[in-house]
Fold:
Amino acid sequence: MLQDTPIVPSILGATPLVAIAEAMPNREPLGEVRLKPGREKTLKLGHPWIFSQGIESFTGKNGHLVEVFSSKGESLGIGYVNTHSEIRLRMLGFMEKKAEGLVYRLIAHSLKKRRALKIESNAFRLINGENDGLSGLIVDAYGDVLVVQFGTLGMDLLQKEVVEALTILFQPSAIYEKSTSISRRQEALFPKSGWLTAHQPKEPIEIYEKDVRFLVDVVEGQKTGFFLDQREMRFWIRDKVVGKTVLNLCSYSGGFSLHALKAGAKKVVSVDISEEACRQMEINTGLNGLKGHKIVESDVFEYLKNSEELFDLVILDPPAFIKSKKDLPKGSKAYRELNRLALKKVEPNGLFMTSSCSYHMSPSLFETILLEATLLEKKQTQLIQRHILASDHMKNIAYREGEYLKTMVLLCSTQP
Ligand SMILES: C[S@@+](CC[C@H](N)C(=O)[O-])C[C@H]1O[C@@H](n2cnc3c(N)ncnc32)[C@H](O)[C@@H]1O
Structure:
């Protein structure tokens, strides 16, 4: 039955942009924020946050839109304030001067940017918060179903406008809210989730990436249902695995594994601790009619300690071990040990792809940890690829806080 599920094309397709921005109703008068001297510099570079110490004065309602001024009275754009948050002010857009239709214009701009990418999938990040000038808002598209995450008080208050704009621009069949990130606590907000549309799909949503199909459960799945940020590395491995063996550690619903098998890998072993992820892998493997996939439900440390088998490509994409700065020493130790154990499983002259999605681990620390792991294992390695985020995540260079994912690929060579 699954094989007959129709694949919904990408919503990036033909939907015309509708020029309704000017027709949006006028808002109540904006509040005002004045910054302390010099605090406008980072805003002008494109970083959208001002902390509490940077604010000279604020008039208006908490969470509602405000016009932002430098200490000299220069208008810097539109933002919103949360007096309960250390991040006191967040800008919308980049030096946008007009509040009317702003949310709609920014969402339409996000769509135009994604269209320019020619993504080989109907699942992608449509809006990536601060990186798209929409601080506090994430929107992922799975076929014609959208998953939205409101992360701040200001965005919660803009929910109606956001949903209206998404509906006009994309005509989605359904919109699911998954505002469950722990960052809402810093905004003094409770988590919330549920369907925002009358239509509430009961079945998982079918997506494609190139010629591979996946079923995605946006309600029960991890993140918004799929790890969209690794799409381009899933594509990257494809021409490296033809006729090879692959070990996919922390494999979730089988993203890397199925691309490898579809591209012609001889054998793939996938390891994940989650029973649900393993069930999804079984379903997705069947959906694509693929053979040669061994799925192991296990803790990755346990698997690595108890298995002897070597592979031509080992992929390691664990969850974030470092959730806050205080976890750095313990988390770094876990990354070192896990990478050391995984390196042991790489065939001579094989490849090792390793990722960290811990924001608090800098790229240079991750590199150091990897170097330590290779030295401990007496492996000779060369860095042959680096990756941050799939291009639809639209990294805002000025916004360092958006850099959480780091991926490196090492060639593990034999001694000359
Ligand atoms: C970042 S996701 C992997 C995403 C995957 N690479 C993809 O492209 O879809 C991390 C995965 O690690 C799994 N995981 C968490 N702790 C684990 C552990 N101790 N052992 C094995 N898997 C674990 C989670 O269930 C999750 O599926």
